[in-house]
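explain this:

___
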Amino acid sequence: VHPNVSQGCQGGCATCSDYNGCLSCKPRLFFVLERIGMKQIGVCLSSCPSGYYGTRYPDINKCAKCKADCDTCFTRNFCTKCKSGFYLYSGKCLEKCPDGLEANNHTMECTSIVHCEASEWSPWSPCTKKGKTCGFKRGNEVRVREIVQHPSARGNPCPATSESRKCIVQRKRCQKEGKGKKNREEKRKKSNKEENKETRQESKGRAARRQNREQRESNNKTQLKKRKAPNKEQDLSPVDTAH
């Protein structure tokens, strides 16, 4: 062993140097050179840092740098995330997406152009005019459809979701607010009659009670007068006898 190589290393190093750091790593760890100013120091990591990809060899596992336009990569020729200003497509970083694709500024990827899709038209509605289905000959009917797939930025825009057309129907009279209204009117009249009947009955009852009360009061007054009359005769009788 070289005099500058130590066997008692820390931080995952199998062998190390005071000047160059790690020279080799323990099993399954990746060796990578980190630049500190003008100096490069070897370190051992469980996974490669951003901008590097790992390769395993029988004697050493080491991290290699991705391409300049690639932020993270799986191999040197397969990028998984691009640096700012580039769009990812099939493992490559492109400044402009190929024909038939569009740039997604949210994911920074080239994605397929999505066109708008609409459902089938609904059946035509009944012919109407001013919200009514009777009392006219010419009116309008409407049909609608729904958007089932909204478009991407460069996709074809969505079509109209409703349309109307003129329609002709056989004129028919609108039913007057006939039976329903008539029934309601009859019920109202019947209710009023019952209320009036109850009111008359209550009035008769109050009159009868008032008459009975007045009769009782009259009878009480008569009885009171009768009780007072004999007392007056008794008071006068001794005077008459004295004469």
Q: What stands out?
A: Residues 232-243 have pLDDT under 50 and may be disordered. Residues 119-168 form a domain with the TSP-1 type 1 repeat fold (CATH 2.20.100). Helices lie at 179-242.
